[in-house]
Structures are given as C-alpha cells and as structure tokens.
Amino acid sequence: MSQPLKIIFAGTPDFSVAPLKALIASEHEVIAVYTQPDRPAGRGRKLTPSPVKQVALEHNIPVYQPQSLRNETAQQELAALNADLMVVVAYGLILPEAVLKMPKHGCLNIHASLLPRWRGAAPIQRAIESGDDASGVTIMQMDIGLDTGDMLYKVETPISAQDSAQSLHDRLSILGSEALMTTLQNLPDYQAKAQKQDESQVTYAEKLSKAEAAIDWSQDAANIVRRIQAFNPWPVAFTDFQGQPLRIWQARLPTRQEMQTLDPSAPGTVVAIEKSGMIIACGDQPVVIEKLQPAGKKAMAAYDFAQARQLAGYRFE
Is residue 238 a contact partner of residue 291, using CB atoms and an 8 Å limit? Predict the structure, then answer.
C-alpha cells in the first residue's frame, strides 16, 4: 500500500491475537478493536475480557463490545470511525451487509482452512478428524454468506500425525498473521485478482459438541486417533470408566513391533499395558493411549493409570 491504512480489527479468542499484534507492529493504524462482550470464566465465574480485548487495552486502542452489529446505534458508531479496512478474525458476530460496505476497502477475513473446504465453525478440528493431509489459511473478501467471499491469498501447511487441534490452531494463527501482512502490502492488486470459490468443492465444518467426543471403540483405530487429536483441547475425547468420563488427551497407532505381540480382542478391551501406554483394541487394530485424565484429577500418563488399577483385560464400553 502506498499509504498506511486506518484499520478496525474484529476478533475475540486466542486465534485472533497474533494477527492483531502483527497489525499493531506494522505501519498501519489500528483505530479500534471490536470483540465479544466480557464473559464469565473460571471457578468464580468472574467477568473476563477476551484475549483480543486484553491486547487492545495494553496498547491503548479503543475497544467496542456491542451485543450485535445489526442495530442502528452500533452501525452508526462503526461508520463514524471512517476506516479504510476492517479485518475480521474469529470475531463471533455476524456482519450485516451495511457493515461490510462501510470501510473503504471492505472487510477481510482470515479463515482457518483452505477454502472452499471447511467453511463454518470448526475448520481446524474437522480437517484433522477427516484425515486431511493439509490445512491452511485463506484471506477472504467478506460478503453476506457464510465464508463464501472471494479468495485473495492462501497459505498451506501439512497436517502431521502428531498434530492436535491445539498445535494446528497455534500454527495457523501465526500463518494467518503473515498472510494478512502479505495481502496488505498490495491490497488493491490482490482484490483485483480475487478468485471465486468453487461451489462444487464446498464442505462444512459443523460446530463441535461434547456428545460427539464419546469414543466408539468399534470404529477403526485410525479414525479414533484422529478424533482424539481433533478434540484436543476441546471438547476432549472420552470413554466411560466406572460411571465417570475418562478423558483421552493423546493417542497413536501401534508400531509394527507392538502389533506382533498383541492378540485380537473385542473392541474396548485393554490388550496390553506398556511403558509407552495403555493399548486398547478397536474395530480393526488397537490404539495406544498415551495420556489421559480421570474424573476430578489432573492429566497423567496412561501407563501409570492402567498399571495402578491393573486394567489388563478390562473392557471399556
């Protein structure tokens, strides 16, 4: 850009922090931050500002927290800022068409997937759960649809077998901030060359629920491992143990050497307890549970849990 931009930043969770910090450190001016209203958090349910609000206050940036952007007062307030651009990253509120048109260059969104794959609420988790080889971020010119806008810039990153939703989240947050700064270096050019999304390639990343985190041991082992990785750190995969949820934080497929020592068993059966973890039979082959969390306790090594309770042969339903 030939001149620095006056930017409104809209975001709420941790994922939004790296892009906000990148903008603050750049030649551009963040004239206002929009974020969700403070929410109760912790055991005391004390009202707590969002991570984005905390960063904004540290840098003396005005913060706006409307319940909605659909009412006229909130829209007039935003219009009065006379922004060149609005950057939206996991904000959590719908932007009406009137708001999308207010900034001179419109509104950009950093979306945590390689659009048009995984539009919607949980693109990081669904990519891991589905066994995608790669994820990434897309800088998108926002329109009134759900993640339907034209694509300005993409960055890709491989998904490894060790990736959890948390590790991929952290990597994509940084990649998103870098992609944003690249786009802003010549925004008019990127906007002029924007690409339409191929509607035939669209998939939707449905919102996560606690209920779907229950492990079905009759499923294939690879599918179970992906779900455990995808649901870390929320809602966390779990199985029932003596009437209480046993949360499973980390798992992997067994090595070839480990497989040679295991006898076939009914799904859910603890077929071995090794230093490497608790090995449980699934629909096709076992999984190695490495880290778990009993109800009311801290996360711990699965070996310690299984050994202390002599769980060899025990069957999780």
Answer: no
Q: How far does Cα 91 stand from its chain's mean position?
A: 13
Side chain identity, residue 91: Y
Residue with tokens 């609005």: 86
Q: Distance between CA 258 and CA 248 in Å, rounded?
A: 20
Of 272, 309, 298, residue with least CA distance to 287: 272
Task: Decide if pLDDT at 1 tops 60.
Answer: no
Q: Which residues on adjacent β-strands are paired with residue 34?
A: 10, 64
Where do we find the tokens 């230093």?
275
Calculate mean pLDDT across residues 46-64.
97
For tokens 């608790």, name the residue: 278
In tens, the pLDDT along 100-152 reads 999 999 999 999 999 999 999 999 999 999 999 999 999 999 999 999 999 99
Q: Can you tell me whether residue 30 is helix, strand or coil?
A: strand
Contacts of 239 (CB under 8 A, 6+ apart): 214, 215, 217, 245, 246, 248, 268, 316, 317
In sequence order, the β-bridge partners of residue 41 are 46
Alpha helices in 26-160 (DSSP H): 51-58, 72-79, 97-100, 123-129
Percent helix, strand and coil across the chain, each rounded to 5? 30, 25, 45
Tell me how far apart the alpha carbons of residues 289 and 102 are, in angstroms, rounded to a whole number. Answer: 51
Cα dist. 46→38, 55, 233 in Å? 9, 19, 22
Q: How far is Cα 207 from Cα 120, in angstroms, rounded to an integer? A: 8
Closest Cα to residue 88, out of 57, 112, 60? 112
Q: Which residues have CB under 8 Å from 201's CB, separation 6+?
A: 116, 117
